[in-house]
Amino acid sequence: MPYPVEAWPEGDQRHLSAESALYCRVITEGLFGINPTGLNKFTMTPWLPNGWDYMSLRNVKAFGRTFDIEVTRKGKTETITVKTEKGTIAKKWSRKGTLEIALP
């Protein structure tokens, strides 16, 4: 993550810069299209760039859980897999659309 600490002189306290927060949002909201919709659920509209066969987001800590998201392309269909340490909780196929994921 670029520039995780912007300034330190203000009372000897570190903080994230606005640019760092935007970098995170570009990935979570831009590429993966993650939008929280409840305490344990979210929608996602992944945008796998042309020329990429897959993308993944590992060790996501959200909704009181830790999980991985994988998006793979085969032909014109994308497979979205959400996994926790207990195993796969969602595996869905999409042709560009919004999916709702509910975490157990």
Structure description:
The protein is mainly beta. It folds into 2 domains: 1-31, no CATH class; 35-102, no CATH class. Helices cover 13% and strands 43% of the residues. It contains 1 helix and 7 strands. The strands form 2 sheets. It has a 4-stranded antiparallel sheet with strand order 3-4-5-6, with no helix packed on it. A hairpin with a 4-residue loop joins strand 1 and strand 2. The radius of gyration is 16 Å and the shape is globular. The model has no long low-confidence stretch (mean pLDDT 81).
Summarize the structure.
The chain is mainly β and 104 residues long.
Mean pLDDT: 81
Distance between the termini: 30 Å
The coarse overall form would be: globular
Tell me the strand order in the biggest sheet.
Answer: 3-4-5-6
The tally of beta strands, per DSSP, is 7
The main β sheet shows up as:
4 strands, antiparallel
| Tally of structural domains | 2
Relative strand content: 35-45%
SS field, number of helical segments:
1
Give, in order, the helices and strands.
HEEEEEEE
Q: How much helical structure, as a percent, in the residues? A: 10-25%
Low-confidence stretches: none
Instruction: Write down the Rg.
Output: 16 Å
Overall SS class: mainly beta
